[in-house]
Amino acid sequence: LFRSFSKRFCSFTYLNITQFLGALNDNFFKFLIAFFLIDLQGSENSATIMSFTGAAIVAPFLLFSATAGKLADGFSKRNIIVYSKVMEVIVMSLGTFSFAIKSPVGCYITLFLMGLQSTLFSPSKYGIVPELVSSDRITKANGVLTAFSIVATISGGFLASAITDLSGKHFILSSSLCTTIAAIGLLASLQIE
User: Fold this and answer.
1) Which residues contact 157 (CB under 8 A, 6 or more apart)?
2) Which of 115, 132, 172, 174 lies 20 to 30 Å from 90 when distance is taken between CA atoms?
3) Could you give the CA distance from residue 79 to residue 21 in angstroms, rounded to a whole number?
């Protein structure tokens, strides 16, 4: 059944599903961590918490983007995408554990690792497009990837707020949803040729 379903989509569609779920998860989890830390440390520390959460997720992009680009040039982009999605599942599980033990340090480490995973994923995401679509469709494909990334970013912030409210600030349950999203993204990445 899964094989017949998977044949309906092309590799580019699976790439787009993979990157959409990753961007959704990054923003969903980033806001979950911020809400968790504000709940744990008090709203008077919210400005500092938001600054640190933003810095923790952006730092890997500043530190490792060039290295990620070299990896994408030297190795199979498809394999890098799959391995980065495996890493995402592991990182989401670490985040859930950090919520369970109420560890601010664990949350910041999780954010840093989320940023690192996204940093490794990004060059391969764009670099594989010419291998998946014809040359006359590359610009359109990049536009579609960008549009879905923006929608995912906005949706992730909304979803974090809604789920936090609906679950009564049950952060472990909410982060389990992130792990599920990461697992679905991993399954989608395995379908990329």
Assistant:
1) 27, 28, 31
2) 132
3) 18
Q: Which residue has the tokens 């495996």?
A: 86
Per DSSP, the residues of 124-177 read HHHHTHHHHS-GGGHHHHHHHHHHHHHHHHHHHHHHHHHHHHHTTS-HHHHHHH
CA distance readout (Å), 35 to 91, 107, 164, 169: 18, 11, 8, 9
- Per residue in 91-124, pLDDT tens? 999 999 999 999 999 999 999 999 999 999 999 9
Say which amino acid occupies 181: I
- Can you tell me the distance from the alpha carbon of 75 to that of 82, in angstroms, rounded to the nearest whole number? 12
Q: What is the mean pLDDT of residues 139-163?
A: 93
C-alpha to C-alpha distance for 154 and 54, rounded to whole angstroms: 15
Task: Give the integer Cα–Cα distance in Å for 182 and 73.
Answer: 25
Residue owning tokens 């809400």: 35
Res 6: pLDDT: 45
Q: What gap in Å lies between CA 148 and CA 29, rounded to an integer?
A: 18
